[in-house]
Amino acid sequence: MRGGTSKGAYFLADDLPAEPALRDELLLRVMGSPDERQIDGLGGAHPLTSKVAVVSPSADPRADVDYLFLQVAVDRPEVSDRQNCGNILAGIGPFAVERGLVKAGETETAVRIRMVNTGDYATATFPTPGGRVRYSGDAAISGVPGTAAPVVIEFPPGTRPLLPTGSVRDVIDGVTVTCVDNGMPTVLIRAADLGVTGYETPRDLEEDLALADRLRAIRLAAGPLMGLGDVADTTVPKLTLLAPPRSGGAVTTRTFIPVRCHTSIGVLGAAGVAAGLRTEGGVGEEVAALPPDGDRVRIEHPTGFLDIESSLGSTPDGLPAARRTAVVRTARKIFDGTVFPRPDSRPSEPPQSDTPQSDPPGGQR
Fold it and tell me: How far apart are CA 48 and CA 303, in angstroms?
């Protein structure tokens, strides 16, 4: 399925091995990793198209389904569950209805989702005329050609601090940053403070080796400050460069995941940016142009924009806290069937018979 501006393989948990190591080894073979082209699997040779959703009924009374997100590395044998994905999240509700985990309403359906990676929750609402998921519609999102049915995703306030370091501003490796967590740990940095404009293409930024070294140092230092520990082998926190808007939005962004520059921006990353811009004293104050009224914040990115409904309140201690976060995304079912993983290359017992063996007829749903 395509979810927002990402694409991934969606599985029922019961169709995958329960043991995480066996599951991850299978998913590497399904997606074709490690290989920079992922030529022998479903992956699209980019982090945005090498994603997996694992869905199951939820035992939590606050949710209908559990959603585990897995990021499958492209060029190394690694599967990470250290983060959520708000784009793949857009397809979870429709997938749950398609697989019979949630009964569809006659006009629209709201699916309550627990994001297993972090324990956060979301509610996805989408059209189901006649009790069937409708993917066609007139909602357009930047980075996706054409239009589709809207999927409205609302996030209740999380339990973790919006400012995980306890400060509105921190200085990391000589650079002033704002660290936020509104569903995705994110470090906000003024692009100019790193010697770039923030309007460069993702490719140009990726080819700037000096910038890459600087970003790596900031990310590694931010991890412990944000309570994430050693992040050398993870994709969080995300780093987002901020620059003044160019097309009527609130801010221009370039986001790294963790070293590849996002061609758009993740939903949860954008939620963090919006909350960070609304935080008084944050680094975004010098570059952002927030609307004078209303909750909508338009985040510009390399292929367009993403609108986030964002408002803040405060904790009993007077610290800023997310009050409301919502976004409109789209999703589409691309295919439904059986995937045949690359053969397991691990040593196995020799066959007990001299009869020629063929590949088994089954695959992985």
Answer: 14
Q: What is the 3-state secondary structure (H, E, C) of 269-288?
A: HHHHHHHHHHCCCCHHHHCC
Of 283, 295, 289, residue with least CA distance to 179: 283
Instruction: State the alpha helices, DSSP H only, in the chain.
Output: 20-31, 86-89, 92-98, 202-206, 209-225, 267-278
Closest CA to 82 of 92, 94, 69, 100: 69
Joined tokens for residue 209: 């080796």
The C-alpha atoms of residue 342 and residue 347 are separated, in whole angstroms, by 14
Model pLDDT for residues 137-160, shown as the tens digit of each residue? 999 998 899 999 999 999 988 788
Q: Which residue in the block uniquely carries the two structure tokens 């660290």?
A: 179
Of the CA atoms within 13 Å of residue 360, those in its CB half-sphere come to 10
Give how far Cα 67 sits from Cα of 4, 136, 179, 232, Å: 16, 24, 26, 25
Task: Say which residues have a Cβ less than 8 Å from residue 67's Cβ, sequence separation at least 6.
Answer: 53, 54, 55, 89, 92, 113, 114, 115, 116
Task: Specify the residue for token string 């600087």.
Answer: 214
The answer to whether residues 274 and 310 touch, using CB atoms and an 8 Å cutoff, is yes
Question: How many C-beta atoms surround the C-beta of residue 37 within 10 A?
Answer: 12
Task: Give the span between the Cα atoms of 239 and 242, in whole angstroms.
Answer: 10
Give CA–CA dist 231/362, Å, rounded.
38
Q: Say which DSSP state 265 is in.
A: -
The answer to whether the pTM exceeds 0.85 is: no
Q: Do the Cβ atoms of 242 and 198 come closer than 8 Å?
A: yes
Q: For residue 65, give the nearest of 87, 23, 95, 88 by alpha carbon.
A: 95
pLDDT for the residue numbered 355: 47
* pLDDT per position as a tens digit, 301-356: 999 999 999 999 998 888 899 999 999 999 999 999 999 999 987 655 554 544 44
User: How many C-beta atoms lie closer than 10 Å to residue 150's C-beta?
Assistant: 19
Taken in order 99, 103, 106, 107, the sign of the CA dihedral is negative
